[in-house]
Amino acid sequence: MKYFTAYVLLLGIISTETLGQVNTPNGVQVPPSALFAYLDAWPNTNAQLQSFQNDIKNGFYGPSCVVLNDYTRQYNCHGYAWHVSTGGNKIGIDQVTHGGVTPYVSGVNPSYTQTIYNGTQGKLRVRYSGDHSAVTTYDAGKYISKWGAGPLVKHNSNDVMPGYGVPSSYWTCKYAPPLTSVYLDGNLISGSFQNTTWGAHNMQIFWGLDPDTGPTFSSTAGSTIINNQNSGTVNFTFNGPSNNGGLSIAFCGAPRHSFTFFKPSGSKMQVYPNPAQDEEVITISSESLEDIQAVNLDNKVNGIIKISLLDDRQRVLQNYLPNVEGNLTTVKLNAGLKGTYFLKATFEDGTVQTKRVLIGK
């Protein structure tokens, strides 16, 4: 009789104190009449709740039950399943009397839509035939639910309190949390279109609500994802055949945000004469069809701002300030140079090109 009494007390008696306005993830107000708070010492004292928690640990409601968090009066099963785990306040939601779950699953803009459970999907919401809600996990057949004012429990679908019934329907989210900030290579960015360079990059996404499956990333033309653990951080390379690429970000399986990255225009560097003699003047051209086409995205000439001479171990021997005459840049070599060297040009858009030069041969 001890356990049956605890079950009755846990299910039903609530306080109707005002909890303020609560909205679903899609912004629909939950009726204030559906919100409640457990009283400090009733319907169960701390001693009763601790005894109930011990019974769960001892397998009275089924051998699969594992207590994840201790008992608390802050929220109930519906508050956890439909509201708390999506980042909202910890609240109690009354389903039977006031239909508190209804705005989450139906009406003008529901945050969840009914689906079919295959046994291994995580973060589906479960409506039981009795007055209970749970959340599925990726651990096959295991659910997590809050048991009234008692603890948060991981359990098999049918290892629950008498009166909860059995799972009757499953629901998946259909909302997109707002992005609060996006960082590219550690720098805060804004907008969906960003200029960046070829090569490896890191993006961090921060969002307003905790989505059920986390963000998932997919690459568009020109980008390749090299590491993604659905954590809100993605590493990618930007090295496609075109001048742009990007990332598409989906929440709950639906693409909601997209970022396109434009490669700053590079240059194909050509020098002459090559081979050259020491003390000779080397010319870098930006005019001939075979040489650098130093043109940026809006077809303006991409000027050279610095030229460096490197030895065969890539050590800088000398830096030159470019002597520009029209679209030609020239540098004069020092006497005594012989062998293989490299000229490294840095352009206005930040791109760098290197060309091998043979001297004195």
From TrEMBL:
InterPro entries: Secre_tail. Residues 1-20 form the signal peptide. Keywords: Signal. It comes from the Bacteria. NCBIfam families: Por_Secre_tail (TIGR04183). This is Secreted protein (Por secretion system target). It comes from Dyadobacter beijingensis.
